[in-house]
Specification:
Elements: H1 2-18, E1 37-48, E2 51-64, E3 71-74, E4 78-83, E5 90-96, E6 98-102, E7 107-118, E8 123-133, E9 138-141, E10 145-149, E11 152-157, E12 159-162, E13 168-178, E14 190-199
Antiparallel strand pairs: 1-2, 2-3, 2-4, 3-6, 4-5, 5-7, 6-7, 7-8, 8-9, 8-10, 9-12, 10-11, 11-13, 12-13, 13-14
Length: 201
């Protein structure tokens, strides 16, 4: 619909110029707040070597191509799913109430109720703000984060992970870890972790 409206505007301008009338120059009052493209019920798929790697869905996307730092904004939330290279099934996903993508740096900024999951590893994260560097496939935040990894739970700040949420770490963390009952040094099935915590698949 938007493309048809833009095309009609271009055709009308061309006719006016051809007839000798003075053409009206289109202007954008504030390129930082005026979108140049609006898409509803967006579904975007990224592929590599013929296989899906990511799928993004959003109720609405507004693109600001004329901004000083061009960006896309998703004011009604976003869902990003990553696919396993072998099984081609969804391996992890991230959902957020709001998202913004910087087209030059290729960095995603999501906030609100942010939830990420790695289905294969039964691992989930919960926070209010998260950044994803698409170039380096790195996820990070300085906000408070809660991670549930199997039967263990970690909380803290200074979180960092790969894009698939397979290898992750906290700089400052505390939490409850599941400990095998057969461990003779354990007095119960939980232990407290503090300081730096590193998790892997």
């Amino acid at each position: 619909m938007i493309n048809r409206v833009l095309l009609s505007a271009v055709l009308i301008s061309s006719l006016l110029v051809g007839c000798g009338a003075k053409a009206v120059k289109a202007t954008v009052e504030d390129p930082e707040t005026t979108p140049t493209q609006i898409s509803h019920d967006l579904v975007s798929i990224e592929s590599k070597n013929g296989s899906k790697t990511y799928r993004m869905t959003a109720p609405i996307m507004e693109r600001y191509e004329l901004a000083k730092e061009p960006f896309s904004e998703f004011k009604q939330g976003i869902l990003v799913e990553s696919f396993n290279d072998t099984t081609r099934m969804v391996e992890s996903n991230l959902v957020a109430d709001y998202a913004r993508f910087n087209e030059k740096s290729e960095i995603w900024h999501v906030r609100g109720h942010v939830v990420g999951r790695n289905e294969k590893e039964s691992r989930s994260l919960f926070t209010e703000e998260l950044f994803w560097d698409q170039k380096t496939d790195r996820i990070y935040t300085e906000k408070y984060m809660r991670v549930i990894d199997g039967g263990s739970e970690y909380r803290g700040t200074g979180f960092e992970s790969d894009g698939g949420f397979k290898r992750w770490s906290f700089r400052n963390s505390k939490g409850r870890m599941e400990v095998s009952p057969s461990d003779s040094t354990a007095t119960d099935s939980t232990a407290t972790a503090g300081g730096t915590v590193l998790g892997t698949i």
